[in-house]
Amino acid sequence: MLAFVTVGSTRFDSLVNRVLSTPVLSSLRNQGYSELVVQCGNSDFDYAHLLQHQTSCDIDKDGVSIQLWRFKPSLQDEYERARLVISHAGSGTILDVLRMKKPLIVVPNPTLLDNHQEELASALEDMGYLRSSTPSSLDTTIQTFDPSSIQSFPQLEGSRFRNILDEEMGFEMGPRVTKTLVSEVPQIYENLHVHEVYDKIASHFSATRYKPWPIIAKFLSDLPQGSIGLDSGTGNGKYLPLPEENPGSVLTIGLDRSLNLLKIAKHAGVNGVVREVVRGDVLEIPWRLGVFDYAISIATIHHLATRSRRKIAVQRLLQSVSPTHGRVLIYVWAIEQDEFSKREIPVDDVAGDSGQDVFVPWNLNRPNVTPNDEPQTYNRYYHMFAKGELTTLVTEAAQDLGWYVGPKKTNYENVQGMHIIQDGWERSNYYIELRCWKA
């Protein structure tokens, strides 16, 4: 039998090297695969020198006949020949292979910062259409993979996949997003439309929040070993066990207002590890200033009902990390939705660059109800950020603390500063990464 590996148009060094390793080749051979074809793209790997002066090459290793090549105009013939496909997580490749009813193992590429296909792969795995793996666990995945257990992929239905991605990004199916006006004391408004809602939907909400987003996972993976950090607004704590490839190399402490979510976050991950979590407010600092090496705030600040409160939350993040080397990553929802989202954000004509306050519904399916009963809907308050708004907010927050915003300069003395490492829009979110410095 023949197995086909494809990495698409980019480079995926770790996958190609792992596929050609003895553990993976042994697993393939044990499952009856004597032939392996590898489309390696621009990847750098142990046998890459064999392709310097030819378009393809053949090698034998560990009882498997292997053909290597970088690109072809079409992969259709390879898909048809293969009894197993091992692929990167590009949505086009996934759908092409599933349409052909081929057994598929998907390996998301963690080096692609803007790659959210990992969530799609995970959702399709949960639906039984494929298996998802990592380079390091690929041999085990192959060894335990039973193609007969895979569900037959149905006729392609675009709305089905939009719904999957909407759920991953938190846009639960239900009534449309509506504009709102914060007409009460902000704290009371947040209690009614944020904190009380999340305590009620905690278990259901947590069930849709199980896969780390790639940029955030990479941020945590790049931290120096031994770093201690804060997840401000940790929710169900899905980022507390990271990095997956080196568990325990950093310690992230979770902070949240929802007691029910913290009960889940305390046991996030596998192996029965008890996580460090604290019940508190993102507008407060219940610890010594500068105690953390890093802080993340993922999909939290947009729940604060006024601009001044959102600015204070940013300042608390800056004050919580080391003034000399602290790193901060912030994510918020964006007015600008991508093509996968069925939600349209209503925007006031005067909204401009100040964003939009909205209610985003969450449908909670209740137990012991008849099929015709409607799910219970909770409206969650969100401030949807406009383009440039997050960067402006962060800049003003730092400047109001008396900080300099920009790269560190050698001629500065007694200056506290903050440098924006990167900012951008990614899959219906705005994000910004910051680095603190002191001269």
TrEMBL record:
The protein's GO terms of the molecular function aspect are:
N-acetylglucosaminyldiphosphodolichol N-acetylglucosaminyltransferase activity; S-adenosylmethionine-dependent methyltransferase activity; tRNA (5-carboxymethyluridine(34)-5-O)-methyltransferase activity; tRNA binding
Q: What does this protein do?
A: Involved in protein N-glycosylation. Essential for the second step of the dolichol-linked oligosaccharide pathway.
EC class of the enzyme, as a word? transferase
What species is this protein from? Tetrapyrgos nigripes
Key word Nucleotide-binding present in the record?
no
GO process terms (BP): tRNA methylation; tRNA wobble uridine modification
Reaction catalyzed: an N-acetyl-alpha-D-glucosaminyl-diphospho-di-trans,poly-cis-dolichol + UDP-N-acetyl-alpha-D-glucosamine = an N,N'-diacetylchitobiosyl-diphospho-di-trans,poly-cis-dolichol + UDP + H(+)
What do we know about how this protein assembles, alone or with others? Heterodimer with ALG14 to form a functional enzyme.
Q: What is its main location?
A: endoplasmic reticulum
Domain Glycosyl transferase family 28 C-terminal: start-end pairs: 3-149
Question: What gene does the UniProt entry assign to this protein?
Answer: ALG13
| Protein's name in the database | UDP-N-acetylglucosamine transferase subunit ALG13
Q: What Gene Ontology terms describe where this protein resides (cellular component)?
A: endoplasmic reticulum; nucleus
What does the similarity note say? Belongs to the glycosyltransferase 28 family.
**Compartment list:** Endoplasmic reticulum
Q: Does the keyword Zinc apply?
A: no
Q: What is its EC number?
A: 2.4.1.141
> Which keywords has UniProt assigned to this entry?
Endoplasmic reticulum, Glycosyltransferase, Methyltransferase, Transferase
- Residue ranges of every copy of the Methyltransferase type domain listed in the record: 230-318
